[in-house]
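Make up an example, fold above all:
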Amino acid sequence: MRPFSLRVAIVVFGAAVLITLAVPAMARADAVTQWNANANAAILASNPTAHSSVLSSAMVQGAVYDAVNGIVGGYKPYLVSPAVNPWDSTDAAVATAAYRVLLSVVPASQTAALATLAAQYTAALAAVPAGAAKDGGIAAGEAAAAAMLAARTNDGRNPTTPFPFVFGTTPGVWRVSPPLTTPEPTPWVGNVKPFLVPDIEMLRTKGPNDLRSKKYAEDLNEVESLGSFSSATRTPDETSAAIFWQSPPLFLWGGLERSLSQRYGLSTADNARLFAEVSLAEADAAIGCWNDKYYWNFWRPIDAIRLADTDGNPATTADPTWRPLFDPATPTVPALATPNFPDHPSGHSCVTGSTMKVLQDFFDTDGVAFDLVSTRFAGTPEATRHFDSFSAATEEVINARVWGGIHFRTADEQGVRLGEEVGRWEAHHYFKRDKH
């Protein structure tokens, strides 16, 4: 069911059907979109791993949703429905819920980010007239934040025990790929308590292809050709796309959500629900993905190609000097490299799959055209790419990880399916209309 009214114009060009959503001429912003931007900036300030950052965002947006929904009503809560009045200030509620959770998830070492948040919170409350409505909104935000922080206590984030890495010495088993020499700092994401699904193992993928299979050889030969640093088959646009997508999903998708909110003039309540649905789904997609990664512990293309003479597959050939496009020699900042965690499934694909599935459901169509801005190519036209639909962006993410030389196509495709499964679960079990 659509959360708000959209006029849909269908224009036929020959055999193609283009669906365009009519939008208001004037953009608008509210407390939810502003605090999403504030939160994402503060979370990203410490340069966290992409898969750990979405957990923090989910906590913020889940609390914001409960605070707003408690006042406005209409949908079932995520965790709690604060005792409030319908005239309480949603602006005060949003700011308080977001700020209180951020104080818990932003590292204490990030003094500049925390100081900025404190100033933003002071300014947000100063803009709300004093009185019972303001006090009620603050109380709603405090209650929602407290419920979220209680629910996520001892949930597996930032454990003190070392992670049991298994480094490979045999064909197919993951090992840290050159030029990196140490494994990632947040492998524990896969052991965090899910936000939505009851058991993370329900998201287990089919796994990588058998090394001796025809499909494995097809995947390896494809990435060897298209993903090579000196590829003669990858186009210039494909090279740009590969680099474009090596940007934090929290930045990419947060910017898209805020843009869509402004285009369609979403209400504060709709914004709160949209951002919560996306963020919570992204979190479980990341948790499921990282659990799956270390379950399969599959090697990256750079090692598979260099050691192809050991895989037992007659359709693959070793190239001991092969390098991916994602190599420090590729001119971009920060430098590129094969990520220091297992291949299967693709993390970006998992999160993208969940995000696009939620957006398709929320807007009740796949046919939403949009521009997406990356942290790469800053200040140049290449920093923005256009898509005619949510599924078009998903398809490019699948391809881009191959073009970058860092994933087998199977890892990308199964990652998308994992993320989409989270989105489907959320749609069937959360954010239902409250009939009371």
User: Anything to note?
Assistant: Strands lie at 8-13, 16-21, 370-373, 384-387. The first helix runs from residue 31 to 44. The radius of gyration is 22 Å.
